[in-house]
Amino acid sequence: MTKKTWFSIATLLLLVAVVVAIVSYLPSRRTNDAGDATDAYDDSEVDKDNDKDNSVVILNGAGNKPRILALHGGGGNGADFSRQQGVRDLADALPQFEFVFANAPEAGGLWLLDPPSKAQPTTDSNWAGRSISYLDSFVAEHGPFYGLMGYSQGTPMSLVYLAHAPANTFQKVALFNGYAPTTHQGLLANIDRAAPFATNTLVFSGANDGFASMSPGLAARFQSPLEVQSRTAGHHLPFSSDAAFSRVVSFFQSGVNAAKATLNTNKATTSTADDKDEDEDP
User: Fold this and answer.
1) CB neighbour burial string for 59-90, b if at least 16 within 10 angstroms, e if fewer
2) Which residues pair with 244 in a beta bridge?
3) CATH code at position 104
4) For the segment 179-220, what is each residue's pLDDT rounded down to a tens digit?
5) Is the dihedral of CA 158, 163, 166, 170 positive or negative?
6) 3-state secondary structure string, 32-98?
7) What is the DSSP letter of 222?
8) Would the pLDDT of 13 be above 80?
9) pLDDT at residue 34, as a whole number
10) What distance in Å separates the CA atoms of residue 76 and residue 138, rounded to the nearest whole number?
């Protein structure tokens, strides 16, 4: 071969090596049940050293405050979710609420295990049985909860749990960057039998989020949802600098007095029941 040919081959091999190195450096991205990349690798900051952190994180803790149950996205955990900028901004703007972060019990930080394929949806109405049982125990231990907040895969799990839980378990529901579980037909049937939900609900989407087109299908499961779309947000909650942020804050603030009244009533009822049990002890 001529020197020119050898030089061309060497250049080609070098380019291939560079491409392979770049691809191997990028995080591999699984798909969730909507067929899109899981949000463990979204555009928010995530501390990958804490992927296995299953501790219960509480923002704005300490004090007699109404609680919001927060469900993270697929592939993450409560600690990761609590560190997202949009979540931190929301908690900072709502110091009168405690935000309590649960952790998905399925492998890989999932609330809903993936179907065999997008073309082969599941039909099992108990597909989320493990996650439902986990949330039942979590609510019993850490509740009562005034609100439910779901993000990404946490939104279909929120729908699943609303269809399962007793009425008025939550007074408010806020769903961010989500979708209905259309690749889980058994779960979707459970949801649609209970829908439309009357709970006061906010459905948020970002114009730059690949999930935005699925937001109307999510909102359709509620009677009178407040639909808020950010012109700038991607796959994350709105930041405090976002024009849509104030509408999300106002949604929570509008019920703060009722939330406190409900909390005090629940605590008084619990205290009375405890006193009665003590009186009846031999």
Assistant:
1) bbeeeebbbbbbbbbbbbbbbbbbbbbbbbbb
2) none
3) 3.40.50.1820
4) 999 999 999 999 999 999 999 999 999 999 999 999 999 999
5) positive
6) CCCCCECHHHCCCCCCHHHCCCCCCEEECCCCCCCEEEEECCCCCCHHHHHCCHHHHHHHHHCCCCE
7) B
8) no
9) 47
10) 18
| Poorest-pLDDT segment among 12-26, 106-120, 145-159, 163-177 | 12-26
Range of the domain at 96: 32-254
Q: Report which of 52, 89, 81, 110 is spatially closest to residue 240, judged by C-alpha positions.
A: 89
**Which distant-in-sequence residues (6+ apart) come within 8 Å of 96 by Cβ?**
60, 65, 66, 256, 260
**Phi and psi torsions of 85, nearest 5°:** -60, -45
Distances (CA, A) of 203 to 138, 139, 155: 24, 22, 10
User: pLDDT-based confidence at 14, cuts 50/70/90?
Assistant: low
- Three-state secondary-structure class, residue 127: coil
**Could you give the 3-state DSSP secondary structure of residue 104?**
coil
Give the predicted TM-score (pTM) of the model: 0.78
The amino acid occupying position 195 is: A
Asked whether residue 185 is assigned to any structural domain, the reply reads yes
Number of domains in the chain: 1
Using DSSP bridges, classify how beta strands 172-176 and 200-206 pair: parallel, antiparallel or unpaired. parallel
Q: Are 176 and 201 in contact (CB under 8 A)?
A: no
User: Who's near 130: CB < 8 A, 6+ residues apart?
Assistant: 105, 106
Alpha-carbon separation of residue 110 from 55, 114, 136, 164 (angstroms): 16, 9, 17, 18
Is residue 74 within 8 A of residue 42, CB to CB? The reply is: no
Peptide bond into 196 cis (omega under 30): yes
